[in-house]
Design goal:
The chain has helices at 29-45, 58-62, 74-84, 96-99, 103-113, 136-143, 166-174, 178-185, 201-204, 289-308, and strands at residues 2-5, 18-21, 49-55, 88-93, 119-123, 149-153, 190-194, 223-230, 236-244, 255-260, 271-281. It has 314 residues and is an alpha/beta fold. The protein has two domains: 2-153, HUPs (Rossmann fold); 188-308, Elongation Factor Tu (Ef-tu), domain 3 (Beta Barrel), CATH 2.40.30.
């Protein structure tokens, strides 16, 4: 799959594509429905599929001081879009210049001139351009004279009738509710990052961890989690992780620290992905390492039970 920037026209071989247009952070059930519609449309007409996303998230421009809220990195989105059937991912750099475009300018310059799509698929709540003046109806109106057809995908709900949205997923994760987030995403929420050197205290107590900075990701509820690690070579590791500030140690430092079961290889400087399967308990401060290790033994035993009963979802 090709990964394209928005600075120039797309290659000739993928002009005339069907474009799925949206932010798609998290790529949950609703986003999957939009991209799925684009794939079906494109395949019916023998056209390529482009998924167009925005980076950084528009909210980061308008609310630069907002706490981290990202559910997926661009690399994760690229992987997910490819699995969904896309031929290319186009990343619109969301800056002040892009935000200042009128609906007419966005459709003419960013879509018609740069991509040359035959069709565009969006969700029903998609808005674009300056002051969110662009709606799905406006997109259809502006696109028609430019030979850009449009389709709109309605809101997606769970079988229980609950709406699927990124905000609901974020709320679930902040409450430590991994099962709800997993259902809405169709896979566990996962944090991807480079394993960095830490203070190596884990080694001294028999629980060496792979330390990962949380970066721009949403902060789920701090606590201990049953996790799965996905290594660059494709191996999948079960484990337990502390996500938080490690209150037993001074000074506090926010990290994701997975300990992988029955694994002793070095992971330093490798990019790994850690899936949060279930929250075991909140973080706690212990009176010494012996008490900490005793609790960790219990956490590991429980994580083994949970993961043994939970199939891996890539």
């Amino acid at each position: 799959m090709q990964r394209l920037g928005s600075g120039g026209a797309v290659p000739a071989e993928i002009r005339g594509a069907i474009v799925a247009l949206g932010n798609f952070d998290g790529f949950h059930l609703g986003h999957q429905a939009v991209v799925g519609r684009a794939v079906d449309w494109a395949r019916a007409e023998g056209r390529p599929v482009i998924v167009a996303t925005f980076d950084p998230h528009p909210m980061r421009l308008f609310r630069p001081d907002a706490p981290p809220f990202r559910l997926t990195s661009l690399d994760q989105r690229e992987h997910l879009f490819a699995r969904a059937g896309a031929d290319a991912m186009l990343v619109f750099q969301f800056d002040e210049a892009l935000a200042a475009l009128t609906p007419e300018e966005f459709v003419a310059e960013m879509l018609h001139k740069r991509i040359g799509p035959a069709g565009v698929v969006t969700g029903e709540d998609f808005t674009f351009a300056k002051d969110k003046a662009g709606t799905t109806a406006r997109l259809a109106e502006i696109g028609a004279p430019l030979d850009i057809a449009t389709q709109v995908v309605g809101a997606v709900s769970t079988p229980e009738g609950q709406p699927v949205s990124s905000s609901r997923i974020r709320a679930a994760l902040q409450a430590g509710d991994c099962p709800t987030a997993t259902r809405l995403l169709t896979r566990p929420f996962a944090i991807e990052g480079i394993v960095q050197h830490g203070d190596k205290v884990g080694r001294t107590i028999g629980y060496p961890t792979a330390n990962i900075d949380m970066g721009k990701y949403l902060r789920p509820a701090y606590g201990i989690y049953a996790v799965r690690g996905l290594l660059p070579d494709g191996r999948v590791l079960d484990g337990a992780a502390n996500l938080g500030i490690r209150p037993t140690f001074d000074p506090p430092k926010e990290l994701l620290e997975p300990y992988f079961l029955d694994f002793s290889e070095s992971l330093y400087d490798q990019c790994i992905e850690v899936q949060l399967i279930e929250r075991l308990r909140p973080e706690a401060k212990f009176d010494g390492l012996d008490a900490l290790v005793a609790q960790m033994d219990q956490d590991i035993a429980r994580a083994r039970q949970i993961l043994a009963a939970t199939p891996h979802v890539a």
